[in-house]
Amino acid sequence: MNPVAGNVGGMALGKDYAAQDCSLARALEVVGERWTLLIVRDAFYGVRRFSDFLAHLDIPRAVLSARLAALVGTGVLAKDGHDYVLTDMGKELWPVVHTLARWAEDHLSAEPSRVFVHTDCDTRIGPDGTCPDCGRHVPPEELEIHAGPGVRRRTDPVSLVLRSPHRLLDPIRP
Amino acid sequence: MNPVAGNVGGMALGKDYAAQDCSLARALEVVGERWTLLIVRDAFYGVRRFSDFLAHLDIPRAVLSARLAALVGTGVLAKDGHDYVLTDMGKELWPVVHTLARWAEDHLSAEPSRVFVHTDCDTRIGPDGTCPDCGRHVPPEELEIHAGPGVRRRTDPVSLVLRSPHRLLDPIRP
Q: Which of A19, A151, A157, B139 could link A147 by a cystine bridge, Cβ 3.0 to 4.6 Å?
């Protein structure tokens, strides 16, 4: 990427933080755009198809297209036929997705819509991503999503699949 | 907060993700706006004064005012006289700030501008926030910031202080 200095106001269209040398700023250029982390979250849930992201996120088609293209361009997602799949680099965003969600539950009175269970131990992981039972930092491949008390009864295809426990990263539609 | 349905396009001004029940969406309503996590990062560095945030972040005054007011409103920062100080809730964002920065270093070829050292062990903490020496998950109060190879020679007051090792959360200007 070749960041260019631009309008850095609150409503700026540019993605760069040109004057900031911090690596956090570089990360935010890639995942800091509106909706992007929610798309990444859905990819962890196993969403792979454009139409499923569209129905589950309920965002304009053009926004979803732009975000998916950017995520492929930066290597967070890879195209596999018509599917969008998290790369290894993308999977390493799991602690960010999980920590932010738990932070909201702890501090913003957000009721958990999804609860993450370490399948080996059948135990809900802690806010820092470790399993209270085995003490390990659990990778997403070993987690199962369960519906939490804050879940809404939506009827899009993704929400329907996620009414039952579902292994993280397993395709929502095999 | 009382989210209202609004324009959810990429350039939307609204902060809410009304159709998303996920607690991640709630977190992004609070910290997902442009510049907000960089302000939180600066607060971890010990920046407390409006003029110091302004000079170090190099953003428009109105944007900084709006972001600081929102962070105080949601309880991430508290006002202490003229100072903006991280609350306990705000301090729990440290793993998010640190993980995203390290992720950029690992995957986006971002050279570290700041390196975080566990003062007790004099050891750089790992990408997951634990100290390789003592194995503990290190809270920000026990970390010291050192200039990394990617740092720019900027001359604002914050950058000048951070040329020397500085304990996280200690005020940049005592």
A: A151
